[in-house]
Design goal:
By secondary structure, the protein is an alpha+beta fold. The protein has 1 helix and 5 strands. It has a single domain, classed as Nucleic acid-binding proteins (OB fold (Dihydrolipoamide Acetyltransferase, E2P)). Strands 3-2-1-4-5 form a 5-stranded antiparallel β-sheet, with no helix packed on it. It is globular and about 30 Å long. The N terminus is likely disordered. It is found in: Cytoplasm.
């Protein structure tokens, strides 16, 4: 019987994670963003489900907000409520 999580398995997971870092960041369009409440949603270009975005994840200085239909790139993280955009940058 082979071990499910042997050393070879860990290497495969590590390589997969490294490949993800080498890929371009996902891009999308701001569907809506409520500046007063500090959150909104991004529609990814790949057609996947909309992703929640909080103002704290917008890169930049000063007042951080997004405009409807603005093109952005981002990473996808996970919160207790589901996927969340992180490291959001305007294109």
């Amino acid at each position: 019987m082979a071990a499910a999580a042997g050393p070879g398995h860990r290497k495969a997971v590590h390589r997969t994670q490294k490949k993800r870092k080498d890929r371009e960041m996902p891009q999308g369009t701001v569907k809506w963003f409520n500046a007063e409440k500090g959150f909104g949603f991004i529609a990814p270009e790949d057609g996947s489900a909309d992703v929640f975005v909080h103002y704290t994840e917008i890169q930049g200085t000063g007042f951080r907000t997004l405009e409807e239909n603005q093109k952005v790139e981002f990473e996808i993280g996970h919160s207790p409520k589901g996927p969340q955009a992180t490291g959001v940058r305007s294109l």
